[in-house]
Specification:
Layout lengths: L4 H11 L3 E5 L3 H14 L3 E6 L8 H14 L4 E8 L2 H10 L3 E4 L6 H17 L3 E6 L24 H11 L3 E4 L16 H11 L3 E3 L7 H9 L2 E6 L1 H17 L5 H23 L6
Parallel strand pairs: 1-2, 1-8, 2-3, 3-4, 4-5, 5-6, 6-7, 7-8
Helix pairs in contact: 2-10, 4-5, 6-7, 9-10
């Protein structure tokens, strides 16, 4: 069942859990996510990051994502992640995406507001939702390895500016920077929970955690309790698929691609299941 960002986040707010937003640059990722979603009967977000355009073009994977969402037995939002180009966002919505993140975090505050307003106006034509960002996430959404957690106090989201930004733009969800980064953590992230709690008190809309892979179970639970309602997850899922593929290549004589792909899907399913049990407060079975 295809739904928009507003609908799926209202489910998260009502039940006080976080929606898993999983980047799916190929069909194997989509299968791994939806198998878990239907097993646990939970809503999920299938996401395509603009940075993955060179990995899988939007016009190729987008219609597949929308089709799979429409056929799913649970609510599924199809989301464009880190869209830096308004034309690219519109291309996604023409395909049928029901949500997009406009990422103007590298721009001045004024330019970010101006472009985010345009993104919101665009999304309303398609009955879609818009997420935007104040503060800057460390490293690339592509999943490149980080050099460890750095001192990033100067790029954390300022709660007062976040309030001003949300009121000026009318966005549906806010991505806040409070200590996570994209990619592989080489040291344990130190999350600023008082900051995220203050932001939630001021903005009154669902908050989003980017760089969600690799966070500890305890930190996930605390973040959700402070108002995080969407958690972006990709790198560690993809890494598990890589490990499984390598194992097949190392242990199987003359493996075929479908053997490698199936092993990767199963490994990603297992990793996604672990995340889902935390995000949605699912009991072990």
């Amino acid at each position: 069942m295809l739904v928009n960002l507003q609908e799926i986040l209202s489910l998260a707010e009502k039940s006080q859990y976080a929606i898993g937003s999983f980047n799916t640059p190929n069909f194997e990722n989509i299968m791994a996510v939806l198998k878990n979603a239907e097993h646990y009967q939970i809503p999920v977000i299938l996401a395509h990051a603009q940075v993955h355009e060179s990995v899988m073009p939007l016009e190729t994977i987008g219609p597949v994502m929308v089709f799979c969402a429409q056929k799913a037995k649970v609510p599924v939002c199809v989301h464009l992640d880190h869209g830096e180009d308004l034309d690219y966002i519109e291309r996604a919505m023409e395909i049928g995406f029901t949500s997009a993140m406009y990422d103007g975090s590298k721009l001045s505050y004024e330019e970010n507001v101006e472009n985010t307003l345009k993104a919101v106006q665009l999304a309303r034509k398609y009955n879609a939702g818009i997420e935007a960002e104040i503060g800057v996430m460390g490293n690339s959404e592509s999943g490149e390895e980080t050099n460890g957690m750095q001192e990033m106090e100067d790029i954390y989201t300022d709660p007062e500016i976040a309030k001003k930004f949300v009121e000026a733009t009318g966005i549906d969800a806010l991505a806040a920077s409070f200590g996570t980064v994209h990619g592989i953590y080489t040291s344990e992230p130190k999350l600023d929970f008082p900051r995220i709690e203050k932001i939630k008190q001021l903005v009154k809309i669902p908050l989003v955690m980017h760089g969600g892979s690799g966070v500890s179970q305890g930190d996930y639970i605390t973040a959700i309790s402070k108002g995080i309602r969407k958690i972006n997850y990709y790198t560690y899922m993809a890494r598990e698929g890589t490990y499984a593929a390598k194992k097949v290549l190392d242990s199987t004589r003359n493996p075929l691609y479908h053997d490698i792909a199936l092993a990767a899907v199963r490994a990603m399913e297992k990793d996604i299941e672990s995340a889902i049990r935390i995000f949605y407060h699912c009991n072990n079975e």
